[in-house]
Structure formats: structure tokens, C-alpha cells
Amino acid sequence: MSQVLGKLDDYPRASLVSGPTPIEPAPRLSGELGLEVLIKRDDLTGLAFGGNKNRQLEFYFGAAREAGADTVLITGAVQSNYARTAAAAAARHGLAMHIQLEERVPHVDDTYRLSGNVLLDDLLGAVRHSYPDGEDEAGADAAIRQIADDLRARGKRPYVIPLGPDNPPLGALGYVVAAREIVAQLDAADTKVDAVVAASGSGFTHAGLLVGLRALGSQVPLYGICVRRDAARQRPRIADKCRALAPMLGIVDPVTDADILLDDDCLAPGYGRINDATMAAMLLTARSEGLFLDPPYTGKTMAGLIHLARAGDLAAGSRVLFIHTGGTPALFAYAPELRERMSTA
Ligand SMILES: Cc1ncc(COP(=O)(O)O)c(C=O)c1O
């Protein structure tokens, strides 16, 4: 199986994931939705409350170690799961960590600013910086590079985790690894799935899974649920990442435009903001399976899955693999809004 994924195993990787993560049935949720839902538990990747970012960070921390870095820097939303897991990875590797938190979500309160992931960032000893405009990716990248330059001038050896769209999607290799894991698990269980559903934010998860699945010969439809920007803006990002991944792996690009499936029905009113469908999906999943989803990512993604089922894209009775990408610490940052919505649900 490895050869078809080319140079995947040649990249330096720091071990951060306790895997393989299980694929579990969700019988009561399935009954509610008229589907057979299986859940890939990437909320259980291990380090620091888990999540998809640990898979991506294995490659960045591998690169940071190879570069001889003593300090790692990352930029993300205030309630960034990436920043929290990166801070934990840095702690585990004895590296200093600087995180820049961008104001991406309007009208937030102190709970959002200080609880959830931010509390964990502080417990992990990360140095926090803030950036005022969450939609200005180039500006945020320039600001984090400036912090790195200042550290370098003080004799440090910084490594910036480069997440902007102009950088090679190194983190997406973590989801090529996950695709290999999923194909092996489904083969071993002699199970086929009719569709896979995952969040599509930076697109590392979506693009990595898509390239991995197609390279391994799986033609299963993969739906990316838009959590950050609408489908029209997300499509070229996913296409670019898939195109960039093939040469990074040293393989022929296995993805066609028709493979990129996106649904943005549950995105409004925007990144990190709860809507009725997301709240309903979170409550349904908690109360049918005892499983927590988060408002910005997995709650929206489950809402997207439900929308696809209602729209007929996922046929009644079909077997669907939902990728649970973690993010549960952010639940606590949304406590006031969740309480208010529960009181009227
Ligand atoms: C919990 C969680 N799920 C999904 C995503 C989206 O994944 P990606 O950025 O790889 O598209 C993120 C991104 O921050 C996340 O934190």
C-alpha cells in the first residue's frame, strides 16, 4: 500500500498521534438519521484532547526538529485547536511556543477569549500574541514572521508553521496518512462505505484525505463541509492543495475536479458562529451517542451531513463515515451561547 503513496514515509515526522484511532458505529444516531453512520474518532488522537491537528503537526514538528528549531510559532483563531495542540507538541519536545490569535469571530465575550483552548494555551505555557483581523491571512502571516524575526535577532532559532495558501501543504500529509489508516481499517473489517464526510476549513484534512483515498484506488465520494468560507471560495483552495500534494508525494495527481465535493449550507452566519442546524446536530449527537461535537467544526460538519441526507445526496440507508476531527475544548468557550440556546431548544 505504501508505494502508491510515494514519498509519504520519507518526510520527517514527530510522533504525536496515538493511533490508529477507532472507527465506531453510531447506532442510535444512525436510527435518527435513516443512515448507517460510522465515526472515525480522530478526536481521540491523544495529545492534549486530541483532534485532527495532531496528525498535521506531526509533519511540521518533524520539519522543525530537522531545522534545529528551539521555538515554534503558529497563527490561528482565538479558539484555535491548532494553537492548543501545537503548544502541547512544543511542550512535549522541549520547545518554546509563540501563538498569534486572530480576531476571526465577531461579538465574543470574555468566556470566548479566556476559556476553552485559550485556558489550555496558558496552562501549556505558550506566549500569546494577538492579531486584530482574522480575515487578513497575508497580514497575519507577515505579523507572525515579524515575531519570528524579532526572536531570531535575540538569538533564538524560530520555526514558523506556515499555513497560508501560498505554502506547501505539509500538514495535509497527515491526512494522507489517515486515508491509508481508514482504507486499511475498512479492508480489515471487510466494510465498504458509500460516502465520507469531513470538515473543510484550511483544507488540509479534506485535501489530504482526497489525495490519499484516490491514490489508494478508493473512489468513495468525500464531502467537505465548509466551516470557514463558502464553497465557491473553498473549491480552488482544495484544488490547489491537491495539485500541490501530488508532486510532494512524487505521484501523478489522482484527483479530478469532479472529486471535489463541497457543501456550505450550514456555514451561515460565518466561521465560528453557531446556527440552529449546528446546535441541533450537537444536541442530537450528544443525546443519541454521548458524543460531543464543537460549534465551529464538527457540529457544523454533522449539520452538513444531515443536510446532505435531507437533500438526497446521501441516500437513505447508506453507510457514511463521519470524520470526528476533535475541537471539543472549544465547547467551554461557547458556554453562554450554548446555555441560552439550550434554554429555548
Ligand atoms: C476541530 C477541527 N476540526 C476541523 C478543522 C478543519 O480542518 P482543516 O483546517 O484541516 O480543514 C479544524 C481546523 O482548525 C479543527 O480545529
What can you tell me about this protein's structure?
- By secondary structure, this protein is an alpha/beta fold.
- It folds into two domains: 3-52 and 168-344, Rossmann fold (3-Layer(aba) Sandwich); 53-160, 3-Layer(aba) Sandwich (Rossmann fold).
- Helices cover 43% and strands 15% of the residues.
- The protein contains twelve helices and ten strands.
- The protein has a six-stranded mixed beta sheet, sandwiched between helices. A four-stranded parallel beta sheet has the order 5-4-3-6, with helices on both faces.
- Helix 9 (231-249) links the parallel strand 8 (222-226) and strand 9 (261-263).
- Helix 1 packs across helix 10, helix 2 (53-66) crosses helix 3 (81-92) and helix 10 crosses helix 11.
- The longest helix is centred in the last third of the chain and has 19 residues, at 231-249.
- Bound molecules: pyridoxal-5'-phosphate.
- Pyridoxal-5'-phosphate (PLP) binds at residues 51-53, 81-82, 199-206, 294, 297-298, 325-327.
